[in-house]
Amino acid sequence: MPLNTRIGSGASQDRLERLIEERLKPEADKNAVDARIWSLFGESWAVMFTDLAGFSRRVAEFGIIHFLQTIYESQRILIPVIEEHSGILLKIEGDSMLVIFRNVDEAISCAVHMQQCCADYNGGRQDAEKVLLCVGLGYGKLLRIGDADVYGAEVNAAAKLGEDTAKANEVLVTGAVREAAKHQSTLRFEPIEQVPAGATAAFRMHYPLA
Fold this sequence. Notes:
Layout: H1 3-23, H2 30-41, E1 42-52, H3 55-62, H4 64-84, E2 88-93, E3 96-101, H5 104-122, E4 133-145, E5 149-151, H6 153-165, E6 171-174, H7 175-180, E7 188-191, E8 202-206
Parallel strand pairs: 4-6
Antiparallel strand pairs: 1-3, 1-4, 2-3, 4-5, 6-8, 7-8
């Protein structure tokens, strides 16, 4: 691996760890350290978490290899959509993906396009073969540690919405996403009761499909 790649991939994490170590010292000025961390790593992004519905049921019914096939197919279908909408795919864990976007409009457009691609793919297929996508979106200031990970209240909220709350074909968003997208006349936002920690509100986004 080239030297510049090795430096770039680990420099942010190393710097953060040194600042955390400094923050742990008994005499540390935590407010000052926190300000340095936010100055170095604080950025505003839209964040997306995706998940596939019915993991446990599908594994029990069809076996893990069948579900691995479904994961493979979902990535084949969806990763090009993420790239088309200027998303940065930071992490894949099992059947979940973490993606960030510079603005809410791109994140929403990507989520809708992903659901459209799944609907097109699922047409005529048996239930066992369908890719059933769940999406959670958040937006706001977060800590971005290079291309390794992101941290923040909206990150946690998006993860909860996408991985735990959303059902198949749903796009759930935080109040911050709804506020940033209120100019989009083709969308309708329905409040939901399950508001995740870190979000002021949560909504089910109703979106048009072709």
